[in-house]
């Protein structure tokens, strides 16, 4: 599944907002990158956080921040929530940026191990 997280800071409301989207339609195996990138993402959930609480979590460390970011509405898997936490920290440290978009593809999490027990043939 392809997912997208949009993380934004609304300084007027003192809120950090995370919106989770995914492509929930079938993507053909022959799809090009352009086709995939233009596919329609559907909103799965979103959460608003008090900026003060997030700043406090950042100061306590990555584990505290991750615990604060995971809620009943947004609960990303470990590899994704780590990247989201990094992006949130970077947003709070940046004077110029107020939003960031993260793209994930579950296929990237899969690894195919090499077959064991087969020896490579040597050409002599």
Description:
With 124 residues, the chain is α+β, with helices and mostly antiparallel strands. The protein has one domain (2-105). The chain is built from four helices and four strands, in the order E-E-H-E-H-H-H-E. Helix 2 (51-60) runs antiparallel to helix 3 (62-69) and helix 3 packs across helix 4 (78-93). 11% of the residues are buried. The mean pLDDT is 86.
Name a few traits of the molecule.
single chain; 124 residues; alpha+beta; 4-stranded antiparallel β-sheet
Helix content: 25-40%
- Spatial strand sequence of the major β-sheet: 3-2-1-4
Query: How would you sum up the major sheet?
Result: 4 strands, antiparallel
Q: How far do the termini sit from each other?
A: 46 Å
Strand content: 25-35%
Task: Describe the secondary-structure layout.
Elements: E1 2-10, E2 15-22, H1 33-37, E3 42-50, H2 51-60, H3 62-69, H4 78-93, E4 99-105
Antiparallel strand pairs: 1-2, 1-4, 2-3
Helix pairs in contact: 2-3, 3-4
In short:
The chain is an alpha+beta fold and 124 residues long. The chain is 31% helix and 27% strand.
């Amino acid at each position: 599944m392809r997912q997208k997280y949009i993380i934004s800071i609304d300084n007027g409301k003192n809120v950090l907002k995370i919106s989770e989207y995914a492509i929930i339609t079938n993507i053909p195996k022959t799809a090009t990158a352009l086709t995939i990138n233009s596919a329609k993402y559907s909103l799965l959930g979103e959460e608003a956080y008090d900026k003060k609480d997030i700043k406090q979590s950042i100061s306590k460390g990555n584990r505290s921040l991750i615990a604060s970011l995971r809620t009943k509405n947004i609960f990303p898997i470990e590899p994704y929530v780590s990247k989201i936490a990094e992006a949130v920290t970077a947003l709070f440290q940046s004077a110029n940026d107020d939003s960031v978009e993260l793209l994930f593809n579950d296929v990237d999490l899969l690894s195919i191990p090499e077959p064991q027990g087969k020896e490579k043939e040597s050409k002599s």
